[in-house]
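Good morning C.,

I know you're traveling, so I'll keep this short. The sequence:
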Amino acid sequence: MVSDKHSLNSHVSKGVIGLFCFVLIFFAFLITSNMQHAEAANPVVITTPQQLDDIRHDVEGDYVLGGNINLDVAPYNTGGGWEAIDGFKGTFDGKGYDITGLMIDSNKNRAGLFGDVSGKASFSNVNLVNVNVNAGHNVGALLGHIGLGGLIENVTVSGKISGVDSVGGVAGYLSNAKIKNSHADVTVTSTSRAGGLISSGGGEGAVIENSTSKGSVSTTGRGIGGLAGEATNIINSSSSAKVTSTHNDTSSDVGGLAGRVTPFKGEVTDSYATGDVHASNGERVGGLIGSLSSSTVAPVTNSYATGTVTGKKYVGGLVGRNNGIAISNSHSTGEVYGINSVGGLIGYHFHNDGIVQKSYSTSPVIATGDNVGGLIGETKDASKIIDTYARGNVSGEVNVGGLVGFNPASTIERSYASGKVTGSNELGGLVGNDVFGKFSTNAPNFYDKETTTMLDSDGATGEATINLQKRSTFKNWNFTSTWKLSKNDYPVLRDTPFDSLTDVSSGYWGRDDVTEIVETGIMSGSPNANQPGTFTFRPADNITRAEFAVVIINALGENVGTESTGFKDDRSIPNWAKKEVAKAKSLGIIKGDAAGKFNPSQKISRAEIATMVARAYDLPMDGFGGPTLFEDQSSIPSWAEAEVSAVVAQQIMQGQDRNGKLYFAPTSQAQRIEAGLSALRAYQLD
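The tokens, ready to paste straight into the viewer:
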């Protein structure tokens, strides 16, 4: 029993000791945690070059600048200059102050103000001014390399940065790290991989956001971009830097924004490049991106390029080579020069997952070789091209098309081309050489047979210029969500769908008509009290004489002046319509009744609309025999016969089909959709 008690006491003692140790460890943790929070709350203030240099002795601390720092002093401006601070894991807040005169001249790798930085580190509000950095691999003014989870935010750099490989204005290499709201005005040179902001950003977590670059970036090697040599995610960022590469291998990857977008689950969105891109011996050269790689989805959306692009092969105004990436709502406008596989938007577009939609190019394309197109030079596999257009002139040798040069098997729908096409063999207004391409009669394609000077045998319909400026030509094209047509112009793509009318559904037969009526300012809707910011059109409602007077003056685009109409019922004319009624009367569009009254609130008839439209647009009254088409011709008033003939002949108004018989219904009250359509069609003729 004694032995058992001793054993029990021993166990109890051990338990108490264990509990005591746990409590000590717990409180130690709390104290350490509080100390860390205290350090974060009370960072070290840096005001001198020496204090900045001393950070290397405590790389886990938190630091802020307390004023501007000039590094153009000894020993930091002599010999190899500043030595990068390696292994930093803390926070560095510049508080908007400047660090001026950073100089590095060595062959060391991972060079910058900081060198190889932990993913735990963050840098913010730092201005590096007039830097002069020359080092080896992974070189940037702020840092050479930053790891997973690292953050660079609100950093600006100006000056010169050069190195052997992976050279960027702000940072060399970002490994799953982020850079936001940062800007570089720099001259960057390297023998391989370079970018105005960063050289490379690898991994799904590598993000460039709300950042810009300008100046120039040049290399003798591959992987160069105005913003980044290689990147995964680029969001709302831009570059105006001039990009130059003398690389002459098969995979140069040169772009105005990024040389290459790597195959991770990333995106390029709301971004653009305006600088010229020159790589006359290079392949995979683009105004925005040199090369897009597949593997996973990395869409390019709402992005554009405007600079002149020069390359050798796989050259595009937006993208040089696209391997299976979706490109939408994007465009290019700069001149494009190359030899083979050259396109206004994309040089080479392939892979079954590759789709280009709601995108266009107005870039002139000048090539000396084969596979040249106003939008895409060469396609491959079952890629898709939907809701696109190209307007630039296109020249090459073999396989030259207004939209696509060489199309083995891609699907093309609802697209058109209008630029002049020149070459020696296999030429086309839409496609130069089509092998097994797929075209749908329900989603037709077109080309301007006058401006392209082409006559295609399949794939598209050649139309005269005037017909390609009429919405009626484009059957089954969506002119409310996707396309928009302005007077005397070809269709263009919408930035956003027209969705402000709540009572005109997508299935309504006149939906696109209503859209154009409203957008041209001919008619408007009424505010929808239930949905602020939206309107109702009420297409089936009747319309008064005063309302149609406003409609017809809006369609004519006439300026209104006096409010005096001279009608005996002038006082009953609403104030919102009085000026338009007065203008319509002065133009001879309306005359009033025998009693000298206008009758503004009276519902207008179809015969009255025909008369007002014919007078407004001075339509020829040559007796086209319009009324003789209708079963109710005897019901057409004598004062409206010639006008009805004129509007019917000009296809401004049509009859109503009743069991296979055609009636004009002259005395029927017109609906708002009928009134708007009549004014719109007349407007389109003018």
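Safe travels,
E.
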